[in-house]
Design goal:
The protein has 156 residues and is an alpha+beta fold. It has four helices and seven strands. 25% of the residues lie in helices and 32% in strands. Strand 6 and strand 7 form a beta hairpin. InterPro entries: Polyketide_cyclase/dehydratase, START-like_dom_sf.
């Protein structure tokens, strides 16, 4: 069953985190760190040494069901913004995008916005999973990321 035309296919969440943008960004841009804070409980592991440095980079992640995804970085600004589109190995992106935007605030805090966009997802078998990626799950990722980043920043 196809998605209704009026269905919202972009979900986001944001909050202020008491950690620097540099600390938070490092946890996002290093795929090996992502399973530590994933609020969807979907990410199992990624090999070390895949730290994203620019748009066009590719990183590989294994999810909890054992599927491998190649993630094409489509937007990147060090310390501020990163977005990627998953694909099956050797395939084209599936039509959804994960985006993180960081805005440094006074006093060393950071506004963190996490967005999931499945506007271009065409495989109807993936719609149910896409719909289940709610703002609550995105906020869970931000909350876990905040806990890690704050513990790193406050330990130094």
């Amino acid at each position: 069953m196809s998605a209704p035309d009026d269905e919202t296919k972009v979900t986001s969440a944001e909050r202020e985190v008491d950690a620097t943008a540099a600390t938070i960004f490092e946890l996002i841009a290093d795929p090996a760190q992502q399973p530590r804070w994933d609020g969807n409980d979907n990410l199992a592991e990624a090999a070390t040494g895949q730290r994203v440095r620019s748009s066009g980079d590719l990183f590989v992640m294994t999810n909890t069901s054992g599927n491998v995804r190649e993630n094409q970085v489509v937007d990147f600004e060090e310390g501020r913004r990163i977005a990627w589109r998953p694909a099956e190995p050797g395939g084209v992106p599936l039509g959804h995008e994960w985006r993180w935007e960081l805005e440094p605030l006074e006093g060393g805090a950071t506004r963190v916005r996490h967005t999931y966009d499945w506007t271009n997802l065409s495989d109807e078998h993936r719609f149910e999973r896409a719909r289940s990626t709610t703002s609550d799950k995105l906020m869970a990722s931000i909350d876990r990321l905040a806990e890690l980043a704050e513990s790193i920043d406050h330990a130094s």
